[in-house]
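Students often ask why we bother encoding 3D structure as a string. The short answer is that it lets us treat folding as translation between two languages. Here is a chain of 88 residues written in the first language.
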Amino acid sequence: MANSPSARKRIRQIERRTAVNKARRSRIRTFLRKVEEAIVQGDAAIAAEALKNAQPEIMRGVTKGVIHKNTASRKVSRLASRVKALSA
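And here it is in the second language, the structure alphabet:
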């Protein structure tokens, strides 16, 4: 258990950051789920729109340090290729 005042403060800060990061990750997953659902439905227009909305949210997660840059790029790339396959 933390005994020094600075360690107690760090614990409080970590709890706050964890809550914020958890909310950000959840938000990203929601956007990803919307794209996935549109792909499953087979509607290319809705899927493309969902991807367009999801992309900035995923990249925002990168800038905020929630997910790694390569992970975000991989997710966007794979979703984009699946959306493209729908319209073809």
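Translate back mentally: The chain has a mean pLDDT of 95. Keep this in mind for the problem set.
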